[in-house]
Amino acid sequence: MSQGEALRAKADKKAASSGGFSFFSSSSAKYEEAHDLYSQAGNQFKIDKQWKESGDMFCKAAEMSLKGDEKDDAANDFWTASKSYKKSNPELAVASLQRTIQLYKEKGKFRQAADREKEIAQILAQEGGDLNGALEAFEAAGELYSAEDAQATANGCFKEAAELAGTLQQYDRAVKHFEQVAQASLGSALTKYSVKDYYLKAGMCWLAGGDVVSTQRALSTYEQQDPTFSSTREAKFLHGITDAFDQGDAEAFTGAVAEFDRLTKLDNWKTGILLAIKRPIAEEPSLT
After folding, report:
1. What's the topology of domain 180-288?
2. Of 109, 112, 110, 140, whose CA–CA distance to 124 is shortest?
3. Comparing C-alpha atoms, which of 215, 116, 168 is closest to residue 160?
4. Where are the transmembrane segments (predicted)?
5. Which residues are CB-neighbours of 209 under 8 A, at least 6 positions away?
């Protein structure tokens, strides 16, 4: 029997004895002892790189904390469990973080709940490969950060949500978040420089939806909200590809893309959206 298994057996025995009445010790003290033993077992399994077993033990520790009405401790235990689970079982990491979030919300700790929602989003986008779930988690985190007046962090989450929505071809949803972040960024000299990129991405998503009139209307709105936008390369590029799309001119579209890419390298996300825009006007989509 390994050291971790021995500690688990000792913790199980202590937990099983904690339900009965004793003149010599309270059940809450036994829950606390069981909690400490489960935590020790979790740490030992972590040392042994037995990640699922480690996570299981920290969840058991959390259950002991709940039985002792120690919700703050339980939230931390579930969070610790998620760190172990993340190494091998991302779906269990997400489930543990959801328990953490529930407990934080009950205690009014919304900033901490937002941090854990963001962590869920990152797990689902990377280890879990669930882009829809990641999108919803980034949105939830953004709303919680906004409620706590952490606007810069909220904007970061909404930007991530917008890009995921675009990747998933949920263009209306992407537009909503890009425009939301752009509007929030206009009032600060530190963030205003990024607004032209948010407008560019929003405009591309409008066009990817196939609605030229709405795209043109959106461009007009952006130029009213930020009078400097109309003179930027981003605005001129949007006008160029919108006109080419409207005329069904694949060659003009490709030329506008190549010219923009020559000075401002297109990233993978923008390239994917531009391919989606070009698809209706070209039998074999290619940006070159």
Report:
1. 1.25.40
2. 140
3. 168
4. none
5. 171, 172, 175
Show pLDDT as tens, one digit a residue, over the chain (288 residues): 899 899 899 989 988 886 554 444 556 788 999 999 999 999 999 999 999 999 999 999 999 999 999 999 999 999 999 999 999 999 999 999 999 999 999 999 999 999 999 999 999 998 758 999 999 999 999 999 999 999 999 999 999 999 999 999 999 999 999 999 999 999 888 888 999 999 999 999 999 999 999 999 999 999 999 999 999 999 999 999 999 999 999 999 999 999 999 999 999 999 999 999 999 987 545 555
Q: For residue 171, which amino acid is it?
A: Y
- Token pair, residue 83, equals 């760190």
Domain extent listing, the chain: 1-108, 111-168, 180-288
HSE on the CB side for 262, CA within 13 Å? Answer: 8
Residue 273 corresponds to which tokens in the numbers above?
């959206």
Q: Does domain 1-108 have CATH number 1.10.1740.10?
A: no
Domains 1-108 and 180-288 share a fold: yes
Its pTM surpasses 0.85:
yes
Q: Residue-wise over 251-265: b if at least 16 C-beta within 10 A, else e?
A: ebbbebbeebbeeee
